[in-house]
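Continuing from the previous page of notes. For each protein in this section, the sequence appears first, followed by its structure tokens. Read the first protein now.
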Amino acid sequence: MTDSARPPRLRFAPSPTGYLHVGGARTALFNWLYARHNGGKFLLRIEDTDKLRSTDESTRAIFEGMEWLGLDWDEDVVYQGASLERHRADAMRMLDAGLAYRCFCTPEELEVRRKTAAAGHETFKYDRRCDRLLPDEVQERLDRSDAFVVRFRIPEGTTEWDDLVHERIAFPNKDLDDFVILRSNATPIYNLAVVSDDIAMGVTVVMRGDDHISNTPKQILLYRALGAELPTFAHLPMIHGMDGKKLSKRHGATAVGDYQHQGLLPTAMLNFLALLGWSPGGDREVMTVPEMIELFTPAGLQKKAAIFDPKKLEWMNGQHLSITPLAELEPYVTPAILAAGLADEATLAARREWYFDLLDLLRVRSRTIDDIVRQAGPYFLPHIDFDPEAVARNWKDPEAAADLLAKVSQTLASVDPWEPGPLETVLRGLAESLGIAAGKVFQPLRVALTGLTVSPGIFEVLVAMGRDLALARISDATDWLRRAADSK
């Protein structure tokens, strides 16, 4: 195992054959948190040996997803495909040391043996026939340029390790096959490439999904065969959808990039991902990134599968919208405001203090950045649409509603200063003079100002809009109601 006195070195090693998915991002995060908590290094390796499926576009998507989440790596990115010569050299070292052997069996021959085993209801296992070839027979085949793979010879005994998540895990070596480490075209199999790269990168902790548990005994044997120190292993639980099945596209968005464009904050995504298979203890859920770094230890890693709940993610995002300092929140909201055509950069810059106050007002009832943008429209647009449900609920009698709003406008026109206290005084006074509950004034007014039934407090809305825009909104609503009454 690793020397606990040394700063740990961890890596995230995705294959660039698709987007950065939720499971990969969670794995990257846990490695990053472990490294940051312990003053270690977090490394990034792109496992691009599958040239047919690896693409530059996927590599870019991985980088973009990592950068959006803020999971920075500490050294130059390692590309696995650039290390083929070392992979081959490591295979040859094991071959020369008698720990591996050349196998000349053709794929067709192996397939026949697999079918024979299946017909006899037996598990196919390579019978080591090529390991029994005499040196002269091997040389003769090499002289004929017969194709061969290199197989690792499984020793007797048991391969076991202390897993940070699952504690002691043991595999009887008799259950392992003499697996291929080098293909007939001299390219490495996954297990060899991973071990060779991890040794070269000085990786001391290998933290990955528990679907890799079956690979671990093979990799441990390769570490030993290459005379390298074993890393500490940690196998994280799978992530399931709400139906209890492995998370996939049928459950909705599974790419980190999708959430980046759905109005989510990266800090909220990190917080949500951190709780998929780890607990800081107690009932604590909402955490900043520094808090996650401080609290992250392997003791909190869980064995059972984690459940990806999109509603919980949206709730978490709402929490982070509320706690994120406005100066940090603004760069995420402003591009969405601009894209919606609500304002231009010059307007927002000229009214910066007002704009920050507005963001502070709107984020309280928002779960996504898109929610903030939807609520922001009435404070920027010259005219708004009225939600039909809001109209049906609060303007049932158009003529009466128009008369009420006309009285509201007349009452508000003389308010000075335009502040919550005086506004509340005059509007409650109006309701009292009309002999109705204050809500019977506030709700029709809310629809006139925002077009919606739900908004921040009515006095806060009035202050944020300002006298001129608020009175213009009420005038527009009154005209709309008069036309609706006339058309009946």
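Done with the first. The second protein uses the same format. Note its length before scrolling.
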Amino acid sequence: MKTYMAKKDEVRPVWHLVDADGKVLGRLATRIAGLLRGKDRPTFTPHVDTGDFVVVVNAAKVRLTGKKEEQKVYTRYTGYPGGLRVEPIKRVRERHPERIIERAVAGMMPKSRLGRAMCRKLKVYAGPDHPHAAQRPVPLKS
């Protein structure tokens, strides 16, 4: 018996709709990362993009547990001396709330060309409206 390997042409992606209102960030991000990778399918193949598209709405209302709202910071380094940039999550939530979910999910994806391609199938919106009604996304059961 041979091991089944999915081909790119055989994969038929499904669009999922996720409402982030009141959901815990980490638990939501792991669920989304699994859908993007295709881990929920019996035809999952690690080196092929077998995942689905995910549309997340109400990203501004995602929940952070503990003291993360006051203590969590995002850091990046410009490459220059003294170039460490620190931004608290509270400011990120005010300016670009969709980036919180995008960054949490991206951290759970493979760090490769394939992982970046899978991350492009994630569409995050701060409010309840999204422009993907034509794709008829299926609401995700909690």
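What the second structure shows: The radius of gyration is 17 Å. The CA atoms of residues 16 and 138 lie 5 Å apart. We return to this in next week's lecture.
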